[in-house]
């Protein structure tokens, strides 16, 4: 590193100039030599070759480093260096590594990748980070500053001071200051400590920990007290994090269960195929992404109505094909829909594949929302949480504000009488079942962002779904919401100290005991009516 | 010594083999005694400071507007509903509030529900069999046999309630009135000390009403009977003492003539006298 | 007359239920191999015929189906099973009815049956080399051993714990062990925990024995919480190309897997195999993986042994197969060892964004599978050798006697006679 | 209003209604009487379509053949039904119970007609209580109110006074008369209580074992007929 | 005696007659015929039948609580598995020092997981009488405690169903854990002897088949005796109107508990007979889906008939055996379709079809016969 950084400085400035001024006309021979040096089997030699590229003043250096990092820099059988543009299938489109000229498709048999390992990956990243420190692109500078935290050494420290001075972006500057401070603490400079106080970044904590157990008693003491403050902060953040984890797990449970809260809770159909309806929603998302390659976000958004529709249609088919014949025999719906669920599962295995399908997360759902250095909220789960609440609110509206809500309850409570009152029971059945199934489809769309999309998807959620609906109190949508969220939170609170398996067992035992206390769930139907 | 003595009494059954009930103590008069009973549902007071005493062997009619709390009162006596406050005693020994439904039932309190409830999947005959006074613990029930006296008793009751022909049909297919009769029959099989009868003649013809009246008056004396009914003709034909409930407490009490002339009763319940048939 | 009868090859892989996801491909693989063999003229001049049954991911049903294959269908050999529990269920049946079972999946070891041939990796052919790599090449000092809560991960992790402590002197607080239920889908807490565990200054790696379906949400969570392979690499023992084909791999680049075969291996034998496979399935996207290679090797070994013995008779094949050497798909050879395990190279691969692995390291030579781990106190002294005259799957070198398996007993009895 | 012709009904193998003929003249109250279990309720259910019939015709309002209509359409044709045993929706509130009647109205009305609450003030008081929590008599009032919400042309009442306090029974009788007089409503009533029937019905039909055995103006209902058909 | 009372019923006579005849026939075809005979029943098939019979006993146990008590237990697999584990533990101990590590006491999985000694709850399982007692007691006690809590609190309907499901799910997760000392996911396998006889011999297989048949007969008899007693009628009454039954003076929760415990014990016996025949017990028997499947057998055969449960269990499992062999990739379609079609077209299951035919044939000879209705609905 040492040597590298030292040599780097002039080059960097140079490279900056060059990209601005002229395209490139350096001799390709030199470039080929540089790349050729990469194409060796020893990783140590590769490391040296990377260094050589960094210190070369070739303007394409950064691109090469990036391509190498991405594994796209490859060599053809006839010794030409190319960049792979797309690496799926047996034939891949490539471009010339030196000129960028497209070379058409080449069979992957005839390509050889210039492999790197994690050590080289780290080296490449650091090198790119240092280069990017001077980049005009703010995003690159930010990433670079982030990367350098804890990586600053003596050689970088000096130029860093001037970089900090010249930096306009607060965020970048703050990070660089911290990065420098960590370095200075390592050197035993007490006054750097104040720049780190209150920072929750793990690298900072590592540095402070090291200082706290260092030889300098004054510094150690100061580091310890800084750490104490940080620990306090961390605790609070961990609490918030656990809560978030719990709510997000809960929202998954709610989503999975909420359709069942309609078909089972309100209509009284023990729909064992509910999980498979969820699965259909997830597969719809997959299919949508197949139809719109390269646009995972759009596909996902379109999947929301599509998933609803597909599952709702499947629901209608189930209702018309099976459930309508089982009026007044609710327990038997268990039997028939179990059969349906077997058929649907196998159908997916036969028609699509027994293997899982890839569903891609769109850019805007990947990664996390950075609250502070100790607390980030994963975006995909945040979307799912929000989605669950929206779906819940929508359902609530339908059940409360539309005639359908009233009619479906009337029909389930006394079918004959409801019909005598002029309620078209058959239509109500179809619409309600379609609604519940459609919501299951929505759950599937959301779950495709969290878990496997495969034939077993449904089975993994069916038991939990029934558990949530019953725990909340059958027939009560609010109950389902509260039950799902609270089971999620309980689970996540228990998990850190009990472990995942035991936490699950404890939650189940808790449900059993809770039902003893409240034999009709969280929000029971009270009064004469419920006792029948 | 006395323990040994007790062992030698071969005709005596051990305590733990005896049905777990002690005789009802009615030496002090009333067989049923409700004091200051209040119950409310979500803030609505269905029973409000109710006081009521039923004497042993008495036949009491209870009337009152819809929603006055008559059925709720029976729920309290039979342990179905727990009052918020108050005391309910059976005889002077049994605090009914400390017992659950089967315990209360085995003390000898029988009930006919307002909405006839019978075991729909069981035959009429079996409905009566289950209702019969017997040792209702597990093992005796498991090993119980259909003996001749029992069968005769059931046949007798079937005769009384007019369902002899339908005795092997499932109770679920009975008409409304037939179910009413079946429930009365079940009550008869139970031979309780105290019968609580909620609207026994709803849906019956005049002549059936007369039969029911005879039946109930015949029981009175040996057993205590509490009847809730809205049919004034029927009430008049059996009533000795009538209690009028209104908004959860006693509005009036006395003979039929007394209460039916009470202007408050007329206002809230009976309506203008010329309307009464 | 009898010579005209086809040779029956039983295939005992779940086509339905939770394991279909992994096993159904193996059924297709064996069918493809049979087809190829028949095109090449069959075996001993006889056709091969596949007998496929579906044990439906149900363990007792595995035993029942195995019994059906052997007793009713009278197959000459069985290729089958994935999970250890299914193998354990089938084991007494194949021993009792003297069948042949080729088991193609990496497993926890601690077993050696006269009738079973383990063509997947034993722990010393996968787990141990992988941690060696991490320790020596990557400089890992802290270890997270994360697994699904069942016997294979538990055993593997036990072995690894002992190994790490004994060989590398890793302190207890530098090892974090975590188990999750099958199909676990909520990894938030655990991943956060791993993140914290790994950001205390020492280079940390996760050794994952997480099973099948739980992996997708696990890797997704890793990516979303920003745990990067360069910071905390995850080396998996149960994630292959097939599992990756259901995951969006872009965020996973750089995570590792240890296997004895990768689809990306650059040999002609492998390319031919892949082409044949794609042709057979008719799906351009279909991938190959390690257990498929294990069946490829197992099938060829069996065929070779049958040729050698000149018969499909189980006892003859059993004797003939020890020492048989066939090419594997990674450019070397696999030999059947006397303990019924085979020799395998160990490869470490990094995940690429195209769902493939790039081999970053491999053992200089092949490693022979070890039925009994050297790092478990109970099995340290055991060896297995199914050649005459020892014919024992669990010979205790300390006591000098053969342990209790029935087969061994019978062998002893036979010798005494 | 309603003409029934040769109606037969079976429960499984038991023949309940035998070749039943019945005429319900428009704008009048016809009272069906008979001992327990003779098939009165079954007849009402057959008219509503709740029990399938095997043969016979039910003609409604001169031209509509009811047996060919679905149950839900019968109420939409203007038939209100107060079944025996109340059959309220126990878990719906009183108001929701009443609102179920709106489905059958053709005018798309969205609120409960105020008249219902005027008739049965207790229903307004208990508007937000669950139907199943009401006392028996309150439920009965609710059942009648609910049938009135659809503004029927033909109202079928199966023992409507059952369990209701005397002054309200009187009130119900008055209401029936008023609706007949003011709206031209037709009422088909099942009633066992002679005083009520005598007071509010125009015509009577006595049933025995699934057949009508006597009929006429209510004034013709003699003690002899009662003795013959209504006592056991 | 109350237990012999069912002998006077036609259906019981018929059932026991068929059972005994089938057992005799299988024994005869297995023992007396040469292998070459097309009618010869091989050991594999005998074993298979034995397994079906143990499933049938399990189904009978479920039908007792579901059909007569109205409790839809979605957790009976737990009792079955507990009985199975009790038997499995006995069989493990029978292996003695013949395990792969040759340890005289510890089962193999404990040796290689480093256990030093048997956990306390394994004590006594080397004795057959103790183990067999535990086959009854382990599920019985669990049912007692669980049922006591649930029935006392008047948990009913789906709430009860779901907590039974939670129970078996929790047990499944617990048994998966290696720390529990039951072999984790791999469960207990590699059994050798039972009562000193070699489990891998054909005669022992036949013996187990016959023992299962006898157990099924006895179990059926017990359930039938309960169902046809007054207690059985109280159960049906409870199913229809629980509150009303209380008002008649029956302590409903005790009746429920009694029947529930009896049923759990029967399920335990079924599990105990199942394990030596299939050779493995692992936590997947605790899987909620398995418990649901049991209910499906009962529903398919015909609820509340007992013999229907037997028919259903045998039919579904036989179908599974056939389908998974004959049409391995499509058998789920067939099984699923079977569930759907039976439910839609045979509302009372296969038994309902039988009863219907019987009724039709009798009623055509004796018109107006009404006493049959009683039997059909009971
Ligand atoms: N569980 C409950 N929840 C809410 N309100 C209740 C409940 N039980 C009873 N009530 C109310 O308490 C009042 C008394 O009811 P109760 O059934 O005792 O009346 P009743 O005197 O029997 O009337 P009726 O003559 O109509 O049968 C009624 O207004 C009823 O709505
Ligand atoms: N679902 C059913 N299945 C079989 N028989 C039935 C069914 N419902 C009623 N019955 C029988 O049909 C006959 C007529 O019953 P219905 O209810 O019409 O009598 P009802 O005249 O209304 O008597 P009530 O005055 O008691 O209300 C009765 O004998 C009854 O047992
Ligand atoms: N052998 C395994 N991976 O279960
Ligand atoms: Mg009342
Ligand atoms: Mg009637």
TrEMBL record, chain A:
It comes from the Bacteria. InterPro entries: ABC_transp_permease (IPR001851), ABC_UrtB_bac (IPR017779), BCAA_transport_permease (IPR052157). It is found in: Cell inner membrane. Residues 1-15 form the signal peptide. Pfam families: BPD_transp_2. GO terms for cellular component: plasma membrane. Keywords: Amino-acid transport, Cell membrane, Membrane, Signal, Transmembrane, Transmembrane helix, Transport. It is a multi-pass membrane protein. One of its GO terms (molecular function) is transmembrane transporter activity. The chain crosses the membrane at residues 243-270, 298-318, 382-399, 466-490, 496-515. The keyword rRNA processing does not apply. GO terms for biological process: amino acid transport. Its main location: membrane. Belongs to the binding-protein-dependent transport system permease family. LivHM subfamily. PANTHER family: ABC TRANSPORTER PERMEASE PROTEIN (PTHR11795:SF447), BRANCHED-CHAIN AMINO ACID TRANSPORT SYSTEM PERMEASE PROTEIN LIVH (PTHR11795). This is Urea ABC transporter permease subunit UrtB. The lineage of its organism: Bacteria, Pseudomonadati, Pseudomonadota, Gammaproteobacteria, Oceanospirillales.
UniProtKB/TrEMBL annotation, chain B:
SUPFAM superfamilies: P-loop containing nucleoside triphosphate hydrolases (SSF52540). Transmembrane segments: none annotated. InterPro entries: ABC_AA/LPS_Transport, ABC_transporter-like_ATP-bd, ABC_transptr_urea_ATP-bd_UrtD, BCA_ABC_TP_C, P-loop_NTPase. GO terms for molecular function: ATP binding; ATP hydrolysis activity. Residues 32-272 form the ABC transporter domain. Keywords: ATP-binding, Nucleotide-binding, Transport. One of its GO terms (cellular component) is plasma membrane. The keyword Aminoacyl-tRNA synthetase does not apply. The keyword Transport applies. Pfam families: ABC_tran, BCA_ABC_TP_C. This is Urea ABC transporter ATP-binding protein UrtD. The gene is urtD.
TrEMBL record, chain D:
GO terms for biological process: L-amino acid transport. Keywords: Amino-acid transport, ATP-binding, Nucleotide-binding, Transport. GO terms for molecular function: ATP binding; ATP hydrolysis activity; branched-chain amino acid transmembrane transporter activity. Residues 2-232 form the ABC transporter domain. CDD domains: ABC_TM1139_LivF_branched. Gene3D superfamilies: P-loop containing nucleotide triphosphate hydrolases. Transmembrane segments: none annotated. PANTHER family: HIGH-AFFINITY BRANCHED-CHAIN AMINO ACID TRANSPORT ATP-BINDING PROTEIN, HIGH-AFFINITY BRANCHED-CHAIN AMINO ACID TRANSPORT ATP-BINDING PROTEIN LIVF. Belongs to the ABC transporter superfamily. NCBIfam families: urea_trans_UrtE. This is Urea ABC transporter ATP-binding subunit UrtE.
Automatic annotation (TrEMBL), chain E:
It is found in: Cell inner membrane. The chain crosses the membrane at residues 12-32, 78-96, 127-151, 158-176, 204-223, 255-274, 294-318, 330-356. The keyword Cell membrane applies. GO terms for molecular function: branched-chain amino acid transmembrane transporter activity. Its main location: membrane. InterPro entries: ABC_transp_permease, ABC_transptr_urea_perm_UrtC, LivM-like. Keywords: Cell membrane, Membrane, Transmembrane, Transmembrane helix. GO terms for cellular component: plasma membrane. This is Urea ABC transporter permease subunit UrtC. It comes from Halomonas urumqiensis.
């Amino acid at each position: 590193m040492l040597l590298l950084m030292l040599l780097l400085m002039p080059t960097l400035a140079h490279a900056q100039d060059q990209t601005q001024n002229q395209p490139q006309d350096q001799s390709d021979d030199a470039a080929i030599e540089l790349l050729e040096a990469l194409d060796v089997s020893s990783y140590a030699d590769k490391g040296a070759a990377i260094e050589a590229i960094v210190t070369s003043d070739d303007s394409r250096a950064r691109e090469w480093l990036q391509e190498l990092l991405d594994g796209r820099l490859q060599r053809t059988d006839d010794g030409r260096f190319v960049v792979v543009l797309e690496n799926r299938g047996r034939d891949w489109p490539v471009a010339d590594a030196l000129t960028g000229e497209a070379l058409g498709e080449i069979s992957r048999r005839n390509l050889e990748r210039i492999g790197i390992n994690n050590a080289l990956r780290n080296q490449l990243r650091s090198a790119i980070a240092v280069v990017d420190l001077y980049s005009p692109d703010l995003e690159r500078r930010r990433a670079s500053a982030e990367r350098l935290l804890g990586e600053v050494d003596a050689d970088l420290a000096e130029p860093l001071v001037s970089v900090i001075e010249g930096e306009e972006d607060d965020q970048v500057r703050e990070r660089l200051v911290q990065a420098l401070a960590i370095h200075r603490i390592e050197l035993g400079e007490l006054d750097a400590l104040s720049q780190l106080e209150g920072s929750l970044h793990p690298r900072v904590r590592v540095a402070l920990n090291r200082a706290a157990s260092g030889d300098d008693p004054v510094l150690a003491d100061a580091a310890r007290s800084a750490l104490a403050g940080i620990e306090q902060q961390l605790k609070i953040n961990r609490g918030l994090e656990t809560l978030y984890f719990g709510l997000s797990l809960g929202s998954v449970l709610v989503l999975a269960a909420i359709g069942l809260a309609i078909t089972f809770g309100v209509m009284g159909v023990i729909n064992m195929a509910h999980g498979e309806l969820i699965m259909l929603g997830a597969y719809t998302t997959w299919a949508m992404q197949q139809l719109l390659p390269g646009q995972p976000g759009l596909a996902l958004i379109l999947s929301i109505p599509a998933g609803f529709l597909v599952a709702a249609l499947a629901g209608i088919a189930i209702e018309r094909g099976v459930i309508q014949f089982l009026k007044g025999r609710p327990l038997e719906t268990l039997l028939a829909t179990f059969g349906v669920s077997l058929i649907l599962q196998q159908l997916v295995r036969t028609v699509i594949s027994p293997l899982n399908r890839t569903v891609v997360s769109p850019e805007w759902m990947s990664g996390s929302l950075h609250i502070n250095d100790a607390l980030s909220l994963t975006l995909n789960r945040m979307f799912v949480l929000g989605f669950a609440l929206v779906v819940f609110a929508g359902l609530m509206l339908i059940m409360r504000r539309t005639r359908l809500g009233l009619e479906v309850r009337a029909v389930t409570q006394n079918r004959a009488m409801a019909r005598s009152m002029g309620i078209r029971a058959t239509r109500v059945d179809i619409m309600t079942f379609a609604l519940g199934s459609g919501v299951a489809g929505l759950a599937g769309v959301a779950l495709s962002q969290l878990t496997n999309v495969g034939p077993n998807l449904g089975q993994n959620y069916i038991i939990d779904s029934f558990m949530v609906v019953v725990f909340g109190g059958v027939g009560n949508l609010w109950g389902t919401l509260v039950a799902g969220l609270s089971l999620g939170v309980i689970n996540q609170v228990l998990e850190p100290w009990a472990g995942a398996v035991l936490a699950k067992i404890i939650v189940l035992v808790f449900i059993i005991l809770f039902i003893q206390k409240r034999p009709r769930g969280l929000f029971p139907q009270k009064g004469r009516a419920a006792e029948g | 010594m006395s323990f040994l003595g007790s062992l030698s009494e071969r005709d005596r059954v051990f305590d733990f083999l005896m049905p777990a009930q002690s005789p009802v103590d009615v030496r002090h008069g009333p067989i049923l005694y409700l004091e200051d009973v209040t119950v409310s549902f979500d803030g609505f007071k269905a029973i409000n400071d109710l006081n009521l005493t039923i004497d042993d062997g008495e036949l009491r009619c209870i009337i009152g507007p819809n929603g006055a709390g008559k059925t709720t009162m029976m729920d309290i006596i039979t342990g179905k509903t727990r009052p918020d406050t108050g005391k309910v005693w059976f005889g002077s020994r049994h605090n009914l509030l400390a017992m659950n439904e089967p315990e209360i039932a085995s003390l000898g309190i029988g009930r006919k529900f307002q909405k006839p409830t019978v075991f729909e999947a069981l035959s009429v005959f079996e409905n009566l069999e289950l209702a019969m006074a017997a040792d209702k613990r597990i093992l005796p029930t498991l090993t119980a046999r259909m003996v001749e006296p029992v069968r005769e008793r059931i046949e007798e009751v079937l005769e009384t309630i007019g369902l002899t022909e339908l005795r092997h049909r499932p109770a679920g297919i009975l008409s409304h009135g037939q179910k009413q009769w079946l429930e009365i029959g079940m009550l008869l099989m139970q031979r309780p000390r105290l019968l609580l009868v909620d609207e026994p003649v709803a849906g019956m013809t005049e002549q059936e009403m007369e039969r029911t009246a005879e039946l109930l008056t015949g029981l009175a004396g040996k057993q205590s009977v509490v009847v809730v009914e809205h049919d004034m003709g029927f009430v008049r034909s059996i009533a000795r003492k009538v209690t009028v409930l209104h908004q959860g407490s006693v509005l009036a009490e006395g003979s039929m003539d007394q209460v039916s002339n009470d202007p408050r009763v007329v206002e809230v319940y009976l309506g203008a006298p010329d309307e009464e048939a | 007359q009898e010579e005209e009868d086809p040779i029956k090859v039983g295939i005992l892989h779940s086509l339905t239920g939770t394991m279909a996801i992994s096993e159904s491909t193996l059924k297709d693989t064996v069918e493809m191999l049979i087809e190829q063999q028949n095109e090449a003229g069959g075996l001993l001049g006889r056709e091969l015929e596949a007998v496929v049954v579906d044990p439906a991911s149900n363990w007792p049903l595995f035993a029942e189906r195995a019994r059906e294959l052997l007793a009713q269908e009278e197959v000459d050999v069985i290729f089958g099973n994935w999970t250890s529990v299914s193998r354990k269920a089938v084991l007494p049946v194949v021993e009792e009815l003297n069948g042949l079972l080729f088991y193609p999946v990496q497993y926890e070891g601690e077993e050696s049956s006269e009738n079973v041939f383990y063509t997947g990796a034993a722990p010393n052919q996968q787990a141990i080399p992988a941690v060696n790599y991490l320790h020596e090449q990557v400089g890992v000092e802290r270890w997270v051993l994360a697994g699904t809560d069942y016997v294979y991960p538990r055993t593997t992790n036990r072995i690894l714990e002992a190994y790490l402590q004994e060989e590398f002197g890793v302190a207890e607080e530098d090892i974090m062990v975590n188990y999750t239920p099958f199909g676990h889908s909520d990894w938030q807490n655990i991943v956060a925990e791993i993140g914290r565990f790994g950001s205390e200054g020492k280079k940390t790696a996760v050794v994952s024995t997480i099973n099948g379906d739980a992996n997708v949400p696990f890797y997704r969570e890793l990516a979303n919480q920003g745990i990067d392979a360069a910071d905390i690499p995850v080396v998996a023992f149960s994630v292959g190309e097939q599992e990756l084909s259901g995951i969006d791999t872009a965020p996973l680049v750089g995570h590792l897997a240890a296997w004895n075969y990768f689809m990306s291996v650059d040999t002609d034998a492998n390319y031919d195999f892949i082409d044949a496979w794609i042709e057979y399935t008719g799906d351009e996207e279909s991938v190959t993986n390690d257990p498929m290679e294990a069946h490829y090797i197992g099938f060829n070994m069996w065929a070779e042994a049958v040729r050698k013995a000149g018969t499909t008779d189980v006892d003859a094949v059993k004797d003939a197969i020890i020492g048989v050497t066939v090419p594997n798909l990674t450019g070397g050879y696999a030999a059947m060892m006397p303990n019924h395990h085979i020799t395998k190279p160990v490869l470490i691969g990094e995940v690429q964004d195209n769902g493939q692995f790039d081999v970053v390291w491999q053992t200089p030579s092949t490693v022979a599978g070890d039925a009994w781990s050297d790092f478990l106190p109970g099995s340290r002294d055991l060896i297995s050798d199914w050649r005459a005259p020892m014919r024992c799957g669990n010979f205790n070198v300390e006591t000098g006697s053969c342990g209790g398996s029935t087969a061994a007993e019978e062998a002893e009895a036979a010798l005494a006679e | 209003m309603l003409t029934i012709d040769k109606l037969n009904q079976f429960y499984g193998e038991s023949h309940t209604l035998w070749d039943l003929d019945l005429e319900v003249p428009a704008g009048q109250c016809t009272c069906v009487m008979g001992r327990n279990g003779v098939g009165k309720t079954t007849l009402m259910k057959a008219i509503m379509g709740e029990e399938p019939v095997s043969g016979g015709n039910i003609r409604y309002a001169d031209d509509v053949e009811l047996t060919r209509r679905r149950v839900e359409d019968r109420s939409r044709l203007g038939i209100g039904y107060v079944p025996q045993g109340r059959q309220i929706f126990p878990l719906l509130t009183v108001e929701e119970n009443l609102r179920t009647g709106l489905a059958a109205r053709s005018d798309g009305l969205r609120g409960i007609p105020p008249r219902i609450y005027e008739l049965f003030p207790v229903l307004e008081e208990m508007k937000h209580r669950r139907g199943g929590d009401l006392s028996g008599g309150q439920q009965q009032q609710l059942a009648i109110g609910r049938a009135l919400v659809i503004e029927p042309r033909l109202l079928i009442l199966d023992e409507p006074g059952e369990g209701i306090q005397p002054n309200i029974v009187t009130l119900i009788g008055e209401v029936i008369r008023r609706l007949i007089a003011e709206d031209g409503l037709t009422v088909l009533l099942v009633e066992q209580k002679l005083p009520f029937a005598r007071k509010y019905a125009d015509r009577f039909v006595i049933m025995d074992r699934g057949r009508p055995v006597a009929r006429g103006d209510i004034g013709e209902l003699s003690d002899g007929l009662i003795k013959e058909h209504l006592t056991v | 005696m109350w237990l012999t009372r069912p002998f006077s019923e036609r259906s019981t006579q018929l059932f026991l007659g068929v059972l005994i005849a089938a057992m005799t026939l299988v024994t005869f075809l297995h023992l007396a015929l040469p292998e070459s005979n097309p009618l010869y029943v091989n050991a594999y098939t005998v074993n298979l039948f034995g397994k079906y019979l143990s499933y049938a006993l399990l189904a009978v146990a479920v039908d007792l609580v579901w059909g007569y008590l109205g409790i839809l237990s979605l957790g009976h697999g737990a009792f079955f598995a507990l009985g199975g584990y009790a038997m499995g533990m006995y069989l493990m101990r029978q292996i003695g020092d013949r395990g792969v590590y040759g340890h005289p006491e510890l089962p193999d999985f404990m040796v290689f997981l480093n256990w030093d000694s048997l956990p306390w709850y394994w004590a006594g399982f080397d004795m057959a009488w103790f183990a067999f007692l535990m086959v009854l007691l382990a599920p019985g006690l669990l049912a007692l405690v669980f049922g006591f809590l649930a029935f006392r609190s008047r948990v009913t309907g789906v709430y009860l169903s779901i907590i039974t499901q939670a129970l078996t799910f929790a047990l499944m997760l617990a048994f998966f854990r290696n720390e529990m000392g039951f072999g984790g996911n791999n469960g207990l396998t590699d059994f050798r002897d039972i009562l000193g006889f070699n489990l891998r011999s054909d005669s022992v297989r036949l013996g187990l088949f016959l023992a299962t048949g006898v157990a099924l007969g006895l179990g059926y008899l017990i359930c039938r005796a309960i169902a046809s007693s007054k207690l059985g009628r109280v159960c049906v009454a409870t199913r229809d109107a629980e509150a009303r039954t209380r008002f008649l003076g029956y302590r409903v929760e005790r009746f429920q508990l009694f029947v529930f415990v009896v049923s759990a014990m029967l399920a335990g016996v079924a599990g105990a007979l199942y394990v030596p025949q299939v050779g493995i017990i692992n936590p997947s028997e605790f899987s909620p889906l398995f418990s649901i499947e049991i209910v499906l057998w009962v529903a398919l055969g015909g609820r509340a008939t007992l013999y229907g449960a037997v028919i259903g269990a045998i039919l579904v499992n036989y179908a599974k055996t056939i389908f998974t062999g004959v049409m391995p990739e499509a058998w789920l379609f067939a099984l699923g379709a079977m569930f759907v079609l039976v439910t839609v077209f045979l509302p009372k299951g296969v038994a309902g079809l039988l009863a219907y035919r019987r009724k039709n044939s009798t009623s055509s000879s004796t018109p107006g016969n009404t006493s049959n209705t009683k039997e059909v609905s009971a």
